[in-house]
Amino acid sequence: MIDYRSRFRNYVKSVSSGKRICCEFERLAVERHLRDLKNPKFYFDEAAGLRFCNFFKLLVHFKGEHAGEEFVLDHWEVFVTVMVFGWKVRKTGYRRFTYADVIIPRKNGKSTFAAGLALACMMIDGEMGAEIYSAGTDRDQASVVWGTAKSIAEKSPAISQFLWIGKKAIVMESTVSSFKPLSRELKNKDGSNPHMAVCDERHAWTSNDMFEVLKSGLGARRQALIFTITTAGRDVTVPYFKQMEYLADILRGKVVQDNQFVMIFAPDEGDDWKDPQTWKKVNPGIGSSLSLDYLRNECDEAIKKGGTIEANFKTKNLNIWVNAPDIWISDDRVRACDYGTDPATLRGQKCYAGLDIASHVDINALALFFPDLPHRPVLMHYWLPEAKINDPDRKDVVDYRLWADMGLIHPMPGNVLDTDQMSADILDILRQYDTQILSFDPFKAYHGIIQNLQKAGLGDILDEFSQGIKNMSEPTKKVESLVIGAEVDLMGDPVLRWMFGNVVLYQDPNDNIKVHKGKSRNKVDGVVALINAVGGWMSKTAEEQGRIIYNDHTLRTVRI
After folding, report:
1. pLDDT category, 559, cuts 50, 70, 90?
2. Which class does domain 4-266+274-301 fall in?
């Protein structure tokens, strides 16, 4: 039987003595605890904190190699638990910490840990009518911790006998307490009165609205807790990036907020992200929830591929805030995708087309992808009004006139695109090949181009391809893989090369990615058209094999 008292004390001793390999912030968290033992405003109730640790002995794992086994808290988890639930205000006897933030790389068991604490707050905290929430940016994210808690409860007879476990709530009837997922999509969130709320992956929260709603509901509870678990992110404009800087200053002693607990696992200044010693510093779960071999493999891939792969390794595995990479895919890799395919040899060959329809005054792009031919050629077409090509005051710093003279851009007379002429051009292009599908954004189908193609008899190949991140993620990753691996022939297209250099990606908490047009440095229409083409190919191929890749993607015609 695990002795959590000894585990807690040994952890504090090993960190404070320097015996344990740890980062500066982990050491500062322990030093703060030791320093506050002399603070007359508070007192440390070790037994109260250990009570919550011992609750985990009632829980069993529900998946993986440890399925059915009793939970055993790692040393760092014991420390966090005892801190959050053991420190109390001397004047009232209630818990000291209203807020607790644990910032740690993925695969260290943070979601499972948070799920167990949430169950404990509902079941053993003595709070009647306790409202426990798992909060996220959307329903999916809000359900991660809650779903984990649900699975744990279902597989743990010691606690399931006291609970009613439904599809959207876990209820303890004896105390009229409940545990539910909560997202900003829900209309009743303003009425929440949380005893404990888990805020999951705050790095992805684009605003603090949800946090403020939860915070405003704390007043009716004497020792409520908002428990944040997150990794670092790839967008330093989100509110939590500044919050993390503030939390770091609490540990450094630059600011004081007595009701805020902080635990951060991140590399120290000067640490090499490729060094296994750095990995050990910031991943306290090595040896229990993840292996050094896993990190080594992830790092090797990051070094070889760079771009988003490297950014993901730094943010997710090392907890380093990395703004969107300067370049999604390096120019060297894009230029390497040139195998000299003669466009004339593509006539009559099977291809998959992708269309990116922009405004009437901007670049529109058509991509033709030939996956069955050697080197998988990509043939691009672009349309742009003459006025934009010749505008000396335009912000684009490329020579559209040169590209038009080279035949790379179809110039269209006047200030706006002639949709009838563009439709005729596309129709002529597609009929030169064995075009299997033409994938496009259904929300941009109002320009008339799609309707014209429908009237021309192409209804059977028109494919509404949703631009939502869940639908765009896999083809975006596939394009990334093809280019990085030099498995595609971009045919020396300078326009597409320029557009690849402009791309900035958006990544959600579930590691889905898509091109972020709003934040990209300049035009990316050709890249989006290519992603649509590859997505249409992937989806149609999957359908032909009897598998459906995209739940929200169907092949259908457009109403005129």
Report:
1. very low
2. alpha beta
Q: Using an 8 Å Cβ cutoff, are 300 and 306 in contact?
A: no
CB atoms within 10 A of CB 401: 13
DSSP 70: B
CB 384 within 8 A of CB 412: yes
Q: Locate 177 and state its tokens.
A: 């307490």
* CA within 13 Å, CB half, 376: 18
Other C-beta atoms lying within 10 Å of the C-beta of residue 276: 13
Residue type, 416: V
Beta bridge partners of 133: 180, 197
Q: How many CB atoms lie within 10 A of CB 41?
A: 10
d(CA 223, CA 226): 10
Ordered by start, the domain boundaries in the chain are 4-266+274-301, 331-544
Amino acid in position 481:
S
Confidence (pTM): 0.73
Percent helix / strand / coil, the chain, rounded to 5:
45, 15, 40
Helix or strand holding residue 260 (H, E): strand 260-264
Reported as a single tens digit per residue, the pLDDT across 282-339 is: 999 998 889 999 999 999 999 988 877 888 899 999 999 887 556 688 888 899 999 9
What are the Cα distances from residue 354, in Å, to 59, 436, 453, 465, 529?
50, 11, 14, 9, 5
Measure CA 492 to chain center: 33
Do residues 352 and 537 touch, judged by C-beta distance below 8 A?
yes
The residues, ordered by sequence, that sit 6+ positions from 157 with a Cβ below 8 Å of its Cβ are none
Domain 331-544 has CATH 3.30.420.240: yes
Q: Which of 535, 545, 531, 489 is nearest to 373 (CA)?
A: 489
pLDDT in tens, 491-540: 999 999 999 988 988 888 778 899 998 888 789 999 999 999 999 999 99
The first and second tokens of residue 359, run together, are: 């405004």
Q: Residue 317 corresponds to which tokens in the numbers above?
A: 């595995």
